[in-house]
Amino acid sequence: MFDSRIQVEQVRLDALRNLNILDTPPSESFDRITRTAGRIFDLPIAAVSLTDADRQWFKSRIGVDHWQIPRENAPCSEVSEFAGTVVIKDFQDSACYRDSHLGRSGIRFYAGAPLVTRDGHALGALCVLGTEPRDATPEEISALEDLAAMVMAQIELQHAFGRIDPVSGLPNRNQLLDDLEDLARDKADKACCVTVIDLISAVDLANLLRVAGPSFLDDLIASSSRSVRQTLGRTSGLYHIAATQYAYASTGQDLEELFAETLQVRAGLLADSRLAGETFSITPAIGLAPFVLGKAAPRDVLRMAHSAAQDARDADTGAGIYSLALDEAHRRRFALIGRMREALVRPGELWLAYQPRIDLRSGHCVGAEALLRWNHPVLGAVSPGEFMPLIEQTRLARDVTEWVIRSVLMQAAEWISLGRNLVLSLNISASNLAEEDFAERLIAAVTSAGLPPSAIEIELTESAIIEKGELPIEHLKRINDAGLGIAIDDFGTGYSSLSYLEHIPAKVLKIDRSFMKTLGSDPRSSTLVGAMISLSHDLGYRVVGEGVETEEVYRLLQQLGCDEAQGFLMCRPLPAADMISWLEERSLPPLPLRRLADLSNDLHWN
Questions:
Q1: 537, 561 contact by CB (below 8 A)
Q2: Which regions of 307-416 does DSSP assign to beta strands (E)?
Q3: Which of 136, 231, 528, 577 reaches 20 to 30 Å from 424, CA-CA?
Q4: How confident is the model at residue 46 (pLDDT cuts 50, 70, 90)?
Q5: What region holds the EAL domain (predicted)?
Q6: Residue 386 CB neighbour total at 10 angstroms
Q7: Residues 376-433: pLDDT tens digits?
Q8: Are the beta carbons of 289 and 192 closer than 8 angstroms?
Q9: Under CATH, which number does the domain 2-161 receive?
Q10: What is the rounded CA–CA span in Å between residue 565 and residue 511?
């Protein structure tokens, strides 16, 4: 019996604390009710009292200076314990309350009506107190109980305000998380599935708000929520978890059946005439996350369902089930971005490899391309093909390029001091070209390092130049005027339009490695590569063949008049320390520093 009362009290306290009302600021909406109760009884003291574990805390009070009193021998505690109205005509006649905190304070009369939740938990009382003994009429008690019900409604309303979306009228994300926790307690180890419905992509949402405004979005939410509920046939259980996202949880249903249901929901949304505007149409993507109740945190489940919806959108399948493999790939990418800032300041984590560029007439190494490498402390060696596309979409692109520039300049200075006058090239991304001060920073860095400008060459792709408009051309003109080299990388794989070449002050063109794979085995490849080399020479470019891996391709490039070759046949990318050893093993004398663009086709090196 005693244990049962303890358990009931614990449940009551949980209900009180879940409302998040204890120790919150005073509110006029509660004070108004408190003042009304005092006027009805014509008494100077009234309060909304909440019964905590060891205190009575006042959410509202009149005629009282303090915010709380001890719970022991407090009449409001009795109201909470028995969930009924309590009237004490005279404290002096009560053995229980005569020596209580209130009794010693001069209180003689008390009347309190319980604040009862929908689940029957009494959280406290709306009470009135007086310093003279008196009775309470049935009308007064009835009015006090009505006012107590109004207080409870106000508490629940304020709580719901943080749990109900005001536009759709549906429970929000916080409520879904709480409900999933409740399910885990009630149905532990049972199969469950959370489904997320994403009406439109983040990009479309931003455009919609910009063009149509918030009012249009409100109308879309109201219409789409009705459409989803009608298709599901549910009057409850749907949650509005983000601006244009809904979710619902399902238990006891087969996954195949749930997936078929999601397709019906999507079809219903697409067919709803209320959601088909003349200038805008929704593109719903739905994700399902099956899990076992109690085995996964609600926040993780919601993230999984959202991830499945985004995968479905990316794959243009409309709906999809959570994939651990895809999710791990997304999380790996996110982790790489998060780690890069630390890698920039940790010695040895990032490093540069250098791949030689060979003059096809003399066989001499005339330069090297700097290639960024990353030894991740957990993942090991991470390919730049994996991390650079991610970094280029973030503000880290500037910091990473700064690191590469500093490192290349230091290496160039060291090799020049050793008599190895190699032209070092480094790769620049489209995001770098969008930086207004990029050219100035690069030129200043080369000057500060004390290097001749011709010692450094930047490489960039066709697409990087074209997609950023006029700004890259201005950057390249300033860089060229300062004496630095410029090379167009991966030529033939981007826009492949030669019209833009006349506007770019580059002097080196690197034919993409994809053309080298079929060179010699496909006559058309030889014709195409030969045409690119001939035309590039006519336009004043020095041509480099990338990805050379066989003697046959090397000889064909020589025959076609290509100026340089770069690839595994000659040398794989090397750490800086191994580069000098490789040059010495070739027994080739160091060359005077020359700008590659100035090397003519008939120049022979000794």
A1: yes
A2: 319-321, 350-359, 365-376, 380-382
A3: 528
A4: very high
A5: 333-587
A6: 14
A7: 998 899 988 888 888 888 888 999 999 999 999 999 999 999 888 899 999 998 888 8
A8: no
A9: 3.30.450.40
A10: 10
Interatomic CA distance for residues 551 and 519, integer angstroms: 11
* For the chain, domain boundaries: 2-161, 173-322, 351-595
Token pair in block for residue 400: 């990473």
CATH homologous superfamily for the domain 351-595: EAL domain (3.20.20.450)
What is the gyration radius of the CA atoms in the chain, in angstroms? Answer: 37
List, as one string, the DSSP characters of 268-302.
HHHH-GGGB-SS-B---EEEEEEEETTTS-HHHHH
Length of the chain, in residues: 606
Question: So what's the pLDDT on residue 469?
Answer: 60
Whole-angstrom CA distances from 5 to 1, 9, 11 are 6, 6, 10
Tokens 């330069």, residue located: 367
Q: Any idea of the CA torsion for 427, 431, 433, 436, to the nearest 10 degrees?
A: -140
Phi (first) and psi of residue 519, to 5 degrees: -65, 120
Res 333: pLDDT: 81
Secondary structure class of 579 (helix, strand, coil): helix
Copy the structure tokens of residue 599.
């090397």
Q: Which CATH architecture has domain 173-322?
A: 2-Layer Sandwich (3.30)
Question: How far apart (Å, rounded) are the C-alpha atoms in residues 236 and 443?
Answer: 64
The neighbouring-strand residues paired with 198 are: 245, 285
Which of 149, 127, 157, 145 lies closest to 21, judged by CA?
157
Q: Any residues with CB less than 8 A from the CB of 195 and at least 6 apart, and which?
A: 247, 248, 249, 250, 258, 262, 286, 287, 288, 289, 305
CA 446, distance to chain mean position in Å, is 37
- Alpha-carbon torsion, ordered 148, 154, 159, 163, to 10 deg: 130
In the predicted structure, residue 92 carries a pLDDT above the cut 70: yes
Catalytic residue flag (residue 342): no
**C-beta of residue 423 within 8 angstroms of C-beta of residue 366:** yes
Tokens in use for 547?
């990805």
At residue 88, the 3 state secondary structure works out as strand
Of 22-26, 179-183, 574-578, the range with the lowest mean pLDDT is 22-26
Contacts of 84 (CB under 8 A, 6+ apart): 114
- Annotated catalytic residue, options 78, 462, 546, 564: 546
CB 527 within 8 A of CB 560: no
Q: What is the pLDDT of residues 352-392, one digit of tens each?
A: 999 999 999 999 999 999 999 999 998 899 988 888 888 88
Residue 14 and residue 123: Cα distance in Å, rounded?
Answer: 10
**Which residues neighbour 467 within 8 Å (Cβ) at sequence distance 6 or greater?**
430
The phi, psi pair for 167, rounded to 5°, reads -85, -50
Return the sign of the alpha-carbon dihedral for residues 199, 201, 206, 212: negative
